[in-house]
């Protein structure tokens, strides 16, 4: 009998367009490191608001590869489109003991794709009232 891993649960939700399922994978005190700002976003509510904006921004999003570490963390490699730019990136997921995502880092390339992402995401994030942590 196989057990669904925490990263597989998250990947399945994201690939299925199930934002609620993806958010259910986040720890209450999750920390999200954005490719756009130097301060992290903290907490399920803040990170959830940010991920809702991401779901609304990326087009043709798909994971292409997975890498796993002995400590249970995972890297999910993705490709997507933002405006007329193709982007590639990684979701680095670190998990709490209960299997929830405790730390989530995103990296995006190329720079022109990141700039397109910032242009699209900025107004959405502002409208949602999502802000990075103050500390």
UniProtKB/TrEMBL annotation:
InterPro entries: NTF2-like_dom_sf, SnoaL-like. Residues 9-103 form the SnoaL-like domain. It comes from the Bacteria. This is Nuclear transport factor 2 family protein. It comes from Svornostia abyssi.
